[in-house]
Design a protein that fits this description.
Keywords: Oxidoreductase, Peroxidase. The protein has 128 residues and is mainly α. Helices cover 33% and strands 0% of the residues.
């Protein structure tokens, strides 16, 4: 059999340079989910301080509302992490990157609050 394939558009990928950072992996794609990820305090994202007593840094929050969505659990007492996108639990490297980006957001928010103590939660969150 012979198949005819028609190409529509350019064969060359279209790419442009931009200064815009796609923060969906950190902040989510909807305003509602973005609010869900926020702590509501000092412009920070929710985090899980489970190992703070050992002097270790915070982890991403646990996914408690729909625990099996985008998550493979061996039993009902284990939970996966929650971040701006569902793929956060697919690979350890993705989980690490999401964790680092959330920690960096919170670090910047804390520093901005020191420089600008008059800023509210929303301003700190948006600027961080």
């Amino acid at each position: 059999k012979t198949f005819v394939v028609y190409f529509v558009g350019s064969k060359t990928p279209y790419n442009t340079l931009t200064g815009v950072i796609d923060g969906n992996t950190v902040y989510g794609v909807t305003e509602e989910f973005s609010r869900h990820l926020r702590s509501g305090y000092m412009g920070q994202l929710r985090m899980n301080p489970v190992f703070a007593e050992f002097g270790l840094k915070d982890l991403l929050p646990l996914k408690l509302d729909i625990p099996d969505e985008g998550c493979t659990r061996s039993n009902n007492t284990q939970y996966c992490f929650e971040a701006g996108e569902i793929r956060v639990n697919e690979q350890l490297v993705l989980t690490c990157m999401h964790t680092l980006m959330a920690r960096e957001h919170n670090r910047i928010a804390v520093e901005l609050s020191k420089i600008n103590p008059h800023w509210d939660d929303e301003t700190l969150y948006q600027e961080a």
